[in-house]
Amino acid sequence: MQPRVTIMIPTFNQEDFIGEAIESAMAQDYKNIEIIISDDNSQDGTREKVKKYLLDKRIKYFRNEVNLGRVMNYRKLLNEYSNGDWVVNLDGDDYFSDNEFISKAINSIKFAEKIGATIVAYLANHRSLQKIDSKLIIARLDEHSLVMSGREYFINYYNIGGFTHMACIYKRDLGIITKIYSCDLVAADFLSIMRLALNGDFILADYEVGTWRRHSKNVSQTNLKRKYRDNIYVIESLANDAKDSFEPNEMELWLNEMRKKNREGYVSDLIFNSEGHQQFRLALQNFKFRYSYFMLLYNLIKKSISSMK
Q1: How far is it, in rounded angstroms, from Cα 210 to Cα 76?
Q2: Sign, Cα dihedral of 190, 191, 194, 196
Q3: CA–CA separation, 81 vs 171, rounded Å?
Q4: CA–CA distance from 290 to each of 26, 219, 264, 296, 297 (Å)?
Q5: What's the number of CA atoms in the CB half-sphere (13 Å) around residue 267?
Q6: Burial of 249 (0-12, 13-18, 19+ CB in 10 A)
Q7: What is the DSSP letter of 2?
Q8: Nearest to 34 by CA among 12, 14, 62
Q9: DSSP characters over 16-75
């Protein structure tokens, strides 16, 4: 029998988006799925929007008696409501665009396990496969996916990293054992998946499986300073978790590069969440002679030209 996959849909006050998320989950062609919705005590019409979908026996709806907050709602979904061998987190305001996503993932996982890999997670929407040194690759599954050690993914993340949780299928039991979603942080997804990486192998795939909807209510867009501080805490925590897995010089390099990556991400977010001339002022104030900053400035100019057309 095919392993069961749980599509976890946490939601809070997302009545305008929740239907599309559910329908995209229902459209997956993989047969052995369950779709679990955890409503974090929404005060809008979310419950009414969900009702019509409950005729589908694959779908279950739970409503928290009190609002737990984003991360604790994730955790409750994983630990108490889900029953799958594998799970994927689809926020209530996002949606899948590839109906074959889960089928592709499970087929790849099964094939990789046959050749001896210990797969703990499958990450699609990965845009940097071409940056991965061939020496780090355990096997190429096809032109769009490969297997690599989670440990190598971890230590090389600043060069090759980049994933979205809606495109990450992982082993539920390992997620529970490693206590993912145990910290109420903006970067809880990153912390959780990187901890998984220390426990086995990853499959990376470069195709797009869905859309992360960017809007003013996204947690990652509404408090940039908190996001920046959270990321610092996460980087330090992961370094502590991984210190026995790597040489001290490897961890020192990783820490320095991750801190630099975090700073650059903060500056980029700060610029693109500002408006008008303030964007250019911030870009010039924070400019460094690095490729990433040249690309940031280039994209800012490109965006400005497009807005004038």
Answers
A1: 24
A2: negative
A3: 15
A4: 44, 29, 10, 10, 11
A5: 22
A6: exposed
A7: P
A8: 62
A9: TTHHHHHHHHHT---SSEEEEEEE---SSSHHHHHHGGGGSTTEEEEE-SS---HHHHHH
Q: Residue 292, class by beta-carbon neighbours within 10 Å (0-12 exposed, 13-18 middle, 19+ buried)? A: middle
76 SS3 class: helix
The string of pLDDT tens digits covering residues 253-289 is 999 999 988 887 777 776 666 666 666 566 556 656 6
Token pair in block for residue 90:
């689809």
- Whole-model pTM? 0.85
Look at the block and give the residue holding tokens 């990652």.
Answer: 220
The span from the CA of 196 to the CA of 151, in Å, is 9
3-state class (DSSP) for residue 220: helix
Quote the DSSP letter at residue 125. S
Assess contact for 64 and 39: CB atoms under 8 A.
Answer: yes
Tokens standing for 306?
């497009």
User: Helix and strand tally (H, E) in the chain?
Assistant: 13, 11
Residues 211-217: contacts with CB within 8 Å, 24+ apart? 211/94, 211/95, 211/97, 212/91, 212/94, 212/164, 212/166, 213/17, 213/93, 213/94, 213/95, 215/93, 217/93
Using CA atoms, how far apart are residues 75 and 176, in angstroms rounded to an integer?
9
**Amino acid 221: pLDDT:** 47
